[in-house]
Design brief:
The protein is mostly beta strands and about 325 residues long. It has five helices and 22 strands. The strands form four sheets. Strands 1, 2, 3, 4, 5, 6, 7, 13, 14, 18, 19, 20 and 21 form a 13-stranded mixed β-sheet that branches. It has a four-stranded mixed β-sheet with strand order 17-15-16-22. It has a three-stranded mixed β-sheet with strand order 9-12-11. A hairpin with a 4-residue loop joins strand 20 and strand 21. The longest helix has 14 residues.
Length: about 325
């Protein structure tokens, strides 16, 4: 890996004596991150931007959140923590506004284009009003709209493009990698069997969505959600995504492999080993570490579950 850092004066630094590097990319967070430790003979300046390259390909592009420099007898030990460029959208609030028949491209023009992001999303639009409430981030303003229409979230790649998270068409085998360890996880603490919700015309929580999959597993938990403020065209998808979201961590596969794995999240995989057979699991987190001598990547994969959703009204 090659690290290129730029300080606030425009000077660049490529640390050589790296003692630790961690890169984390997860579908549950808008920003990927880098944590870096290295030694230097001279005290470094205030770091602004951080880029990571695997060969000639940029795999991380972001900004420094925190740096710590410690003097010791051999020079300076430096620690850098950076988040990907998506932090510009996450940390900036969107101006509250009600759009009439907006498109995803219009929201990109309003909230992301001026910050240097390019548009690589499908051309989503709706014929309803879309409200940006106070306190919504620029990332949330775009992501909430796209997710309501497509059921999929957006992400920012290392080339600063707004992209849609989509499952791959192909299924690859994890067996082609140099596997260090593999674990199977079943988490029964999070799934919810029913969401009861209130709409603007209801006096109580009279509408319900149940998960047949969760009920069949012998799990019984209910949540109550007030959706008075959610537009009708967004409501059903909002409830479904919440109910399905509770099952995301129900069946996991955690695999540690040697080296760096250059794959986009949502790549589909199969795995066959001593712990069992796992068909069609989706990559949702990558954590790459380098300790000065060894490279390894921990992959977390989820089983996509058909929750068997049923909606009804009392």
């Amino acid at each position: 890996m090659k690290i290129v850092m730029t300080d606030i004066d425009g000077s660049t630094l490529c640390p050589k004596n790296i003692t630790h590097l961690t890169m984390t990319d997860t579908a549950d967070a808008a920003c990927s991150s880098v944590a870096l430790k290295f030694k230097d003979k001279e005290r470094i300046g205030e770091i602004n931007s951080v880029k990571v390259y695997d060969g000639d390909k940029a795999v991380f592009c972001g900004f420094c959140d925190c740096q710590r420099v410690t003097a010791d007898g051999d020079g300076f030990e430096c620690y850098i923590y950076a988040r990907s460029s998506a932090c510009l959208l996450v940390d900036s609030q969107a101006k509250p506004f009600t759009f009439n028949c907006p498109s995803a491209r219009q929201l990109w023009c309003e909230y992301a284009k001026a910050l240097g992001f390019s548009y690589s999303l499908p051309e989503y639009y709706c014929k309803e009003k879309y409200e940006i409430s106070s306190g919504t981030s620029c990332f949330g303003a775009i992501n909430n709209f796209v997710t309501a229409l497509s059921g999929s979230e957006i992400y920012i790649n290392a080339q600063n493009e707004l992209c849609l998270r989509q499952e791959s068409q192909d299924i690859k085998s994890l067996s082609k990698y140099d596997i260090i360890s593999a674990s199977s996880v079943i988490n029964r603490s999070e799934p919810i069997s029913k969401i009861s919700f209130r709409r603007e015309q209801d006096n109580g929580y009279n509408a319900h969505m149940e998960s047949g999959f969760v009920i069949d597993k012998g799990i019984s938990r209910e949540r109550f959600v007030n959706l008075n403020s959610v537009a009708s065209w967004q409501r059903d998808n909002t409830v479904y995504r919440r109910l399905k979201g509770y099952t995301q961590s129900y069946m996991l596969l955690e695999v540690t492999v040697a080296g760096h794995i250059d794959e986009e999240l949502y790549q589909r995989y199969s795995f066959h080993g001593d712990i069992g057979d796992f068909d069609d699991y989706i990559l949702t987190e990558k954590k790459y570490t380098f300790d000065g001598s060894r490279e390894r990547t921990r992959l977390t994969l989820r089983k996509s579950i058909d929750i068997g959703d049923v909606m009804y009204v009392d």
